[in-house]
From TrEMBL:
Belongs to the UPF0749 family. This is DUF881 domain-containing protein. Keywords: Coiled coil. The keyword Coiled coil applies.
Amino acid sequence: MQKATYLSLGLVALVLGLLVTFQFRVTRHIEQGIPAGRAQELALELRQLERDRAKLQVEAADLQSKLEQANKGQQEAARAIKDEMDKARLLAGLVAVTGPGVEVTMDNPPQQREGGTPVSLYVIRDEDLLRVVNELRGAGAEALSINGQRIVANSEIRLAAPFINVNLSRVAPPYHILAIGKPEDLRSALEIPGGLVEYLRDLGVQIKIQTHDRLIIPGYGGKMEFRYAKPVLKG
């Protein structure tokens, strides 16, 4: 009986010994952990990665700043191009404009007085309208129209009997000529003694000139196409 007891105690002691040995080895392994040399290497690598990350962040911020500047430059360039296009369209007469100016109304003389007596056989001609337009231009008119037709560089005012064509559109009396500019200068240029208006009135043409603080002149509605004229390239 005692022999069996000693045998059991011996087995228990053996098992306990094995457990203690195993635990000691595991603890020792844990205590050792990562070798000191390897830990230093990892620490160096970590610091290098942090430096690389900081450098990349600086480069990313610099690139972002350059991208924002490029976008800003593109927006400014687009805005400058749009401003130039708007200015060119304004100078070409392609857009409606408003401002102070004068309104000139011209009509043919009455054909006869009461009782049938002829007054004048004169009728307004295309050259009369052209001369009035030129007088207004010479006086500083910045925009002109005749019966709603904008006068631009390639506009024509010509006789197409028995009517007058402006921009290939038929116009008939009374003719309403609108001119934007300094009203006093425009009116004075037309009403100068011995000038164009006095001459036309002597012929019986009915002319009325009115100044306005605000007129609206439409833009040119026709096509502007250059088939033969080309810009001269520098060099």
